[in-house]
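Continuing the series of single-chain predictions for the mutant panel. This is the parent chain; the variants come on the following pages.
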Amino acid sequence: MKFRKTNTTGVAAARASISTATAYRIDKDPRLPSQKQTPRQRRRPDPLSDVFDADIVPMLRAAPGIRSVAIFEEVIRRHPELGEGVRRTLERRVRAWRAIHGEEQDVIFRQDHVPGRSGLSDFTVMDDAAITIAGVSLEHRLYHFRLAYSGFQHAHVVLGGESFVALAEGLQNALWSLGGAPREHRSDSLSAAFRNLDREAQDDMTRRYEDLCRHYGMTATRNNAGIAHENGSIEGPHGHLKRAIADALLMRGSADFDDLPAYRCFIDEIVSRRNARHAKRIDSERTELQDLPGRRTADYEEVSVRVTSSGGFTLRKVFYTVPSRLIGHRLRVRLFDDRLDLFIGGTHLTTLPRGRADASGKHDQVVDYRHVIHALRRKPMALLRLVYRDQLFPRLAYRRTFDTLIEHLTERQACRVMVELLAMAHERNCESELAEQLSACLHAGQLPDMRALQTRFAPDPARLPTVVVHLAPLSAYEALLDSSLTGEAA
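Parent structure:
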């Protein structure tokens, strides 16, 4: 068009490198081809023209959160002549209506994280992983800690619920693994600290959580209850960590572990590999963290119990056995998430695995046959109807052996043989080896032969050490007395 101002149409076309026909067409109508296109018209009648304003819009105004599929099903129920083919049309129309007339939505505000400022905690359930320990399903969750700036993570296997003990232990493990503490600790509704029913206990838990944060110089904060995305720096990584665990289990080929420590090492290895990806960023944030205090603070609950004549005590609907010499004594018990530490006065006695009552309220037992076997040898018939008999057997082979003995022997004989087997396992320290022998007998359809087993697990005289005691002559003691008297006189 610029050349056309000073030249003829043919010359202008040649200078613009277009054909003469194109030049005459542009000269006649200067609009672009896209400007000449007419808007696309509807190719078929609108199937929702009679129902959208009359039926659909009132539903959207009355229940703004209703799903499009629910609206579709209701419209088809009212107007079956429309057919199933209008679903996509209805969904597009509903989406367009909401964009113009719908309610305002919440906005996610991206945050600028400062090094050393914010650490976040949360719990996540691990039921989907289907973890088993020695073939037994493990119901558990993970305590998950993360630094918002560098992405440092720490995960701790929690066997119980979101208790204060689990929070305190997991948080302190994370901080001491990190080597410093952030200035702020953030969580969601913090059910780990506010789960009690009565007011006094709830106030106590609040004070304990505040004391925990104060010990490390952290300010405790939380997001609004029920709004998970306000804790997005930990909620999102939950899914990433769980998917990484699922992939590692597939690579491992099994979700069964020999024991709980093996599973915990597995989780630690996964988290360590993820932290290695952000090593430089984590190292730079460590310089901004607060120094740790000189020691950890309490990550347990302490209660007092009395050992009854049953050879144990009941705590939180769980019966625990202890050595019978403690009957009548009052013990201090420190409750951790996975264990109990028992003290008498200031002396540590032993550590027991922690049990938990069934969700239905049924009581549970944590029994060590070594605590009661000496008493059972004097009263073997007590085994027959013992309330915690199933928990008394240390392995499945022992339980199956007792069932077989009951079937083929009298009750008195079966109880006596079973008690002697348990005593042999304890006294000769052959619990696993004896279980293998009992399994072989059961597989062969035979009853255990006590004489053969006693011979099999008898001490080997060749392995017994030879102890020679040399007694000093009495004259040596007299010489010592004489020398001490001589020294005093001097």
